[in-house]
Amino acid sequence: MVIPCYRVKHAIVGVVDGIGDWAQRIYCVDDCCPEGSGDFIEAEIDDPRVTVVRREANGGVGAATLTGYAAAIADGADVLVKMDGDGQMDPRVGPDLVRPILDHEADYVKGNRFFSGRTIRAMPMLRLVGNAGLSFLTKLSTGYWDLFDPTNGYTAIEAQVAREIPADRVHKRYFFESDMLYQLAVLRARVVEIPLVAVYGDEESHLSEMQALMTFPGLHARNFVKRLGFNYFLRNFSPASVNLVAGLGMVVFGSLFGIARWSVALQTENASTAGTVMLAALPVLLGIQLILSFLQHDIASTPTRVIHTRMSSIRPFDG
Q1: Which residues, at least 6 apart from 241, have a Cβ–Cβ distance to it below 8 Å?
Q2: Whole-number Å distance between alpha carbons of 60 and 5
Q3: Rounded to an integer, what distance in angstroms lies between the CA atom of residue 100 and that of residue 108?
Q4: Hey, how many other C-beta atoms are within 10 angstroms of the C-beta on 18?
Q5: CB 298 within 8 A of CB 240
Q6: Pairing outcome for strands 50-54 and 26-30
Q7: Is the sign of the CA dihedral 199, 172, 161, 190 positive or negative?
Q8: SS3 content of the chain, % helix, strand, coil (to 5)
Q9: Residues whose CB is less than 8 angstroms from the CB of residue 101 and which lie 6 or more positions away in sequence, other chains included
Q10: What is the residue extent of each domain of the chain?
Q11: How far apart are CA 93 and CA 194, in angstroms?
């Protein structure tokens, strides 16, 4: 169990006390917390499973999690569970996260707060709308079209798969969970979700909705382009690759040609001929069909096989 600790003194004792004996080790990562979380945990928590890992500088939730992963892997852990220390996640759900990995049904398991109407009603409306939009962007950027709730940080990952994650390339702060999904997509790892209920109290989130709105779309766009380039042109080339290039080319040509002819028609006050209109419209329509065909292939290509059972040579984890 890995718990990033930053301003969680109000809840961390209850969080650790709630972790059952299914967790063999608990790594509380003090991310240079101004409250002195590490010292507080060592003074207040008498659990032999707890190890405090201190970072010299604050790096964000992603950096703290990767530091905890590295410590757990060094101690021989097989499955790494990450849970926040603010009390919003139920420790009793931990075994449900681990089970699909132990049964070789998944490489990475994450929580989903959108499985039922009851869990959705428990979520503040602003978070609900924001997560819905971010979920669609995550589907585009990662190719995991069957996943939802991308910002949920209650996760479990198989240790061999964690070793393959390039720690130096993962976003270290609040885009961490979404960026992890992108890195897993590059590996073609199998990701599944389980339902859970989050507890929302009086605590304030360190990530504002405005901050996410300003930064996340650009990061998703970057990952989307990188994923397409790697999966459809470098690692593999298929009819879907041709559909994407041809479709985009036709849409761009038709749109630019149509705008140019429309501009000429306005200046000369002469209506465009039917042939000119078709020369602009037909490429756009055909291009859209080709792009939809590509998306259909992309959705059908969502990873469905685990990779940790097929790993033979693993490089050291550099978290």
Answers
A1: 232, 233
A2: 10
A3: 9
A4: 14
A5: yes
A6: parallel
A7: positive
A8: 55, 10, 35
A9: 79, 107, 108, 109, 156, 157, 158, 308
A10: 2-232, 237-300
A11: 9
Evaluated on CA atoms 319, 109, 78, 143, the torsion sign reads negative
Q: 113, 196 in Cβ contact below 8 A?
A: yes
Amino acid (1-letter code) at residue 285:
L
The candidate with the shortest Cα–Cα distance to 110, out of 86, 73, 77, 84, is 84
Phi, then psi, of 82 in degrees rounded to 5: -115, 125
Q: What is the DSSP letter of 77?
A: -
DSSP H/E element including 27: strand 26-30
| 240-260 as b/e: b if 16+ CB within 10 A | bbebbebbeebbeebeebbee
Please name the residue that has the structure tokens 């756009």. Answer: 284
pLDDT tens-place string over residues 256-304: 999 998 898 888 888 888 888 899 999 999 999 999 999 999 999 999 9
Residues, the chain: 319
d(CA 101, CA 97): 8
pLDDT tens, residue by residue, 145-185 = 999 888 889 999 999 999 999 999 999 988 999 999 999 99
174 in Cβ contact with 60 (< 8 Å): yes
Which amino acid would we find at residue 54? R
No. of helices (H) and no. of strands (E), the chain: 11, 7
CA distances from 300 to 213, 266, 294, 295, 317 (A): 29, 45, 10, 8, 31
From residue 220, alpha-carbon distances to 67, 135, 139, 142 in Å are 24, 11, 9, 9
Contact status, residue 93 vs residue 194, Cβ threshold 8 Å: yes
Q: What is the pTM of this model?
A: 0.87
Structure tokens at 50: 């707890």
In the block, residue with structure tokens 């939802």: 148
Evaluate whether the domain defined by 2-232 bears CATH number 3.90.550.10: yes
